[in-house]
Amino acid sequence: MKTIVIANNKGGVGKTTVASQIAFYLGRAGYSVIAVDLDGQRNLTSALGGTRVVGNALQMLEGGEAPSFSVDPGEVVLIEGDRDVPVSSDDAVLQSTVAALDGLDGADFCIVDTPPTFSALVYGALLTADFMLSPIELKRFSLDGVEGVLKAFVQVQEINEGIQFLGLLPSRFDAVKKSERETLLAVAESYSNLLVPHAIRNRVGYEAAEAEGIPVFEVPTASGKEAAAEFGAFFDWFIEAIEKED
Predict the structure, then answer these.
(1) Domain of life, per the record (predicted)?
(2) b or e along 179-208 (b: 16 or more beta carbons within 10 Å of the residue's beta carbon)?
């Protein structure tokens, strides 16, 4: 099983959009998927509203054990979020997170959505991960946020030597705004080898998909179709990048 952790220490960058749509697209491609919502805001749980729930994040972390379940090919199952999931620097939280996520098995992919902080919970998730993907918003001071993401990755890699950094994914990108276009160029110049060659635009189609708990390729509007084509292109890149690292 390949575990991909979606992480950034800044909120509002589209982590849940990316995590939920990756899970849906993997399912459509025939892969079995476990989606794990570690964020107390439970946004991934809402975005995967019709998905079969196989566990609760808080119960899993408190026991340090993964729940027992099976996943069919092409199915996405959910370990739902809990508002009381701890966000702290406690070593016990880190250890229980590692133990619980290490125990997950039986699927092709595990997609983990995380809270907007590099807490013990998030570090624990990264210590079990095969890949880290970081959506970034192209606002002012975005470069400072990128440096925090990369610092966290380097720290994790010292212990989890096998983890790979998939890249910085421009998210909620508004191409109409000159400031965001300029920031994208600045990020590309500073981190050319780390920037994902796709961007997730700020589209109503994604909002509709999350509100209804469905994949964006099922949103029938023009914005939904544009978003589906855009995310589909990113997904093709994503699968190729994963397979390249095998």
Answers:
(1) Bacteria
(2) ebeebbeebeeebeebbbebbbbbbebbbb
